[in-house]
Design goal:
With 314 residues, this protein is of the alpha/beta class. It has one domain: 2-enoyl-CoA Hydratase, Chain A, domain 1 (Alpha-Beta Complex). It contains eleven helices and twelve strands. The strands form two sheets. Strands 1, 2, 3, 5, 6, 7, 9, 10 and 11 form a nine-stranded mixed sheet that branches. Helix 2 links the parallel strand 2 and strand 3. The longest helix is centred in the first third of the chain and has 26 residues. It is globular, with a radius of gyration of 24 Å.
Amino acid sequence: MKKNTIVYAVLGLYFISLLTSLTMLFTKKPLITQKPRQTLAGLNPTPKQSIAVIEVVGPIRMGQSPSRFMSYDAQTIVKKLRSFGDRPEIKAVILRINSPGGSVAAVQEIYSEIMKQRKEKKKIIVASMSDVAASGGYYIASACDKIVADPGTLTGSIGVIMELGNASELFRKIGVKMETIKSGKHKDSGSMFRTMTFEERKMFQALIDEAYSQFVDAIVAGRKMDKQKVLQLADGRIYIGSQALSLGLIDKLGNDQTAIELAKELANIKGEVRLVTENDPWERVLSMFGGVDSKLPFQDLVSKNKVRFEYMLE
C-alpha cells in the first residue's frame, strides 16, 4: 500500500510538472527573442535592428496533415516568411538551408514567397547553406538576395528526376496479374504493373523538360545569371561550396555568422542585432522529448507515392 502511494505521488508530480510546462508554452507569445552566439558586439539591440532566422531542414514537402507537427513543410515555411514580412522591425531574414531538395510544387511555393517578400515587403533575405543545399535546396536559395555557403557545402544538382517502379516481371513469375479498368489510355501511366510505352515515356520526358526549364528560369531570375551559363552548370552534377563560388552559384564562403554580417550590411543595420525565430508551441513540446519528429506514423506510407516528381539530390 505504501509503495503504491509513493508511485501515485511521483506520477502526480510528473503530470503537474508537465501541465505547468504546457501552460507556459501555450501562453507564451509565439515570437521568441534569442540572444545566440551570433550576436555581434556594438549598440544595445532595438526593435529596428532585428533579423529573423528560418530553418529549412530535410526534404521539402507539402504538409500531409492539418496539424503543425510537420515543422519544415512548405506551408509552414511560407507562413513564417509572411509572418516576418509583416513585421516592420524585422529588416532581414536568414534562410538556413540544410536540404537535398524536394517535390517540385513545394519548392516552387517557397521560391515564390521569397521573391514576393523581396519585391513587395522590401525584405533582405540571405541564404545560409549548411551540409547540403542541393537541387530544390539550391532552387529556393537562388531566390535570395545573397547566398553564403561553407567551403564543403554540397550544392548544385540542378535538375529534375522522376522515378517509376516496374515490377511486372516479378508479378509474372509469381503469377500475379493486375486487371485495370480506366477512362482513358493514359490513366494508368506509370503503373508498376506493366512496362511503360514509348508514348508514355515521351509524355513523361516532356514533363521533366518543362520542370527543368522552370528551374533554369528561376535561377536566371533570382541570381541574375546568363541563361547559357546556367544551362552549362545545370546538368545534375553537384558542386562543393568553393566550386560553387568560382562558378557564380553563390556569393560568399562562410558560416551563419557570415550570413548575419552580410544581412546587416544589406539591410543597413548598425551595431548589435537581435535574432528572432517563430516556433509553434507543439514544436517546443515535442522538443522536450528528443526533438521534433516532422512526420506522423502513417505519413511514411502516404509519402511513398508511385510517382516521384522532384528537384532532389540523388
